[in-house]
Amino acid sequence: MMNRLLLLLAFAMLFSSAFACADIGPKPSMEFHFVYETPKAISIINGEQIQCEDESCLDAKPLEQLGPQRFTCSENSCSSMAYGYAPYQKLVINFSDKTRESNVFKSGSFNGNFEVTVTDSRLVVRQQPHSVSIGGILLFIIALAITLILEFIVALAFLWLAKMPMRILAAVLMANLISLPIIWFIFPLFESDYVIVLAISEIFALIFEACLILILNRKSITPVKAILLSLLTNLASFILGWPLLLLISFL
C-alpha cells in the first residue's frame, strides 16, 4: 500500500513538472565585456539583446523577460540568460551619449563569452573562448545549497513514510555533490539545443543518483525504491529550484 502511495505521489509530481517554468540546472547564458574606442568616456545606460532566426535579422525581436530569462546591463558590462536563444543575435545598447547597434552574430556555445568593441558609431561583437565567470560560480554555489536542502527534505519525508533507515540521507547528499557539478560545468560544454542538454542532464541525474544510493545502501533499499527516491528528489529541485533561486537573488 505504501509503495503504491509513493508511486502515485511520484507520478503526480512528474505531471506537475510539465508546467514548471524552470529547473535549477544551468541555463544558456551570454556574457558581454566592452572595450571602448571612443573619443570620450561613456557608460552603458541600458539595452536589448535582439533575437534573429537568420543572418539578415528581418524578424528581429527582443529577448523576453521570463523567469530567469532576461538581458541586463551594468555601467560596464551586459549579460543574459535564457531557456534557449535564436540562432543569431544583435545588441542595441543605449550609452550615455547615444544608442549604438552591433553586427549580427551567432549565438555560439551554451555559455557564450563575447567581447564588444565600442566605436564612435557602432558595436562590433566577437566571440571569445569559453570561460566560467565568478558570477556563474556563485550562482552554482547557491543552486547547490538549494538543491541539497530541497532534496534532503524530500528524502527525509520519503524515508520516514517508507520506514527506511535515515542513513540513506547521506547517500542522497553525496550523490548531489557529485552530479550537480557535472550537470553545471560538463554538460554545457556540448554545443547542442538547450532542451536536449536539459533532458540528458535530468536523465543522468536520475540514473546516477539512484545507482549511487543503491550501491551505498544495498541491504537497506531495493532498486525500485532507489529509483523512486531519486525521481522524487530530482522532481522537487526541478519544480522548486529556480523560483527559490530567484527569490534569494532579490533579497
What does this protein look like?
The protein has 2 domains: 32-128; 133-250, no CATH class. The chain is α+β, with helices and mostly antiparallel strands and 251 residues long. A 5-stranded mixed sheet has the order 4-5-1-9-10, with no helix packed on it. Strands 2, 3, 6, 7 and 8 form a 5-stranded antiparallel sheet that branches. The radius of gyration is 22 Å and the shape is elongated. The longest helix has 28 residues, at 134-161. It starts with a helix and ends with a helix. It has 5 helices and 10 strands. The protein is 45% helix and 22% strand.
Distance between the termini: 43 Å
SSE-based structural type: alpha+beta
Give the oligomeric state: single chain
Largest beta-sheet characterization: 5 strands, mixed
Shape: elongated
Question: What's the topology here?
Answer:
Layout: H1 2-17, E1 29-36, E2 44-52, E3 61-62, E4 70-73, E5 77-81, E6 88-95, E7 99-101, E8 105-106, E9 111-118, E10 123-128, H2 134-161, H3 168-185, H4 194-216, H5 223-250
Helix pairs in contact: 1-5, 2-3, 2-5, 3-4, 4-5
Question: Brief overview, please?
Answer:
Helices cover 45% and strands 22% of the residues. The two termini are 43 Å apart. The model is unreliable at 10-23 (pLDDT under 50).
Feature tags:
251 residues; alpha+beta; 2 domains; 5-stranded mixed β-sheet; 5-stranded antiparallel β-sheet; 5 helices; 10 strands; elongated
